[in-house]
Amino acid sequence: MLPDPGATKALLIGTSTYDFLEDLPAVSKNLSSLAEVLSGPTSWNLGQDDCIVLSNPTSAVAALDTLRDASATARDTLLVYYAGHGLVSPEGELYLGLPQSKQQRVETGIPYSWLRGALLEGRAERTVLILDCCYGGIALGMMGPSELAAQADVEGTYLLAAASENRQALAPPGEPHTAFTGELLAILTTGIAGGPEQLDLDSIFRHLRKSLASKGRPVPQGRERNSNGQLALGWNPAFSRTPVSTSPGVGQAELRTWPDPAAIRTIEGFFNALAQVRIVSALTHAAISHRSGGQISTGTISNLLNRKDLPRKWRTTSVYLAACGVPDTQLNDWHLCWERLRSGPHAAEESECEEERGRSHSTRASSSWRRVVRQLAGRGLRG
After folding, report:
1. For labeling, which of 127, 297, 303, 358 is most exposed (least CB within 10 Å)?
2. pTM for the whole thing?
3. If DSSP codes are grouped into helix, strand and coil, which group holds residue 280?
């Protein structure tokens, strides 16, 4: 299942330049590439304000303030990603590297205990934490990959940790991204052949382990809480999709993974899900219009998918969903979602705006009528 983009936040943190440690220039590319994918229509389709990139943060306080702001507003899903040096204090505490970080000096980075505490304060139903960290010889001597995953554990969070053995494995020479993130981006952009229609976290994790191990690179660690493994990071571009059958009866439509209207919480999420319905159907606007029997034109479909406010009437949306091949058993769930959003706080705001526009129009009309009366009266007096 894909999250509601209107109630989802992603915070991408990365440190590529260091005063006392080796620079990791690939981290900068990690951030821009991952932000581009998460903001795209085949992934979470996040807006600019919902996909926050924090490159080379100056302090742990600055990074955690940004994290708390994101976690305070995310209601569906919060994704937090870090790429850079992962370090270990003499006491065995994990901390994430910042530009002025030093080995065995936890106060110079972001103590993981602080990050964990900020995540636990969040209100999102699901949290995804991705740690693309490197570990030097000291860290490996004190903490193995499985122990890392245990320390980084956060209840209600799906954790992906790149437990790299050395810096070269983390950022292979000549490659634009780090090894772990490069493989993750490859999965999100090219897909998994023979994989599911949606790239859920469990499928991504299994493929990451397989593909990285085949290249002789460190195998990542993963851990989930509260069954978050079914959460998808995007649609699978390599999924073999058969067009919806035009013949009556049970066909491919019932076998597809349609967006779940019960997971929609915002108007933005509603229209994003409608657009995903068309992607799942593999139909063009013209084909949808044809399958509707001419009830909706291609222009109407385009207008529907580009709206910012909910339609006042349900009929057009219902016809669109049915023409795309959404099973009849799911249409009622969509209708209930539309009614729920129409009765939410935003609906009241929309009604107030409409009343204000009506009052403004009435005021303008009354003013115009008074001017006409004055003009006629003036003519009468002159006569």
Report:
1. 358
2. 0.71
3. helix
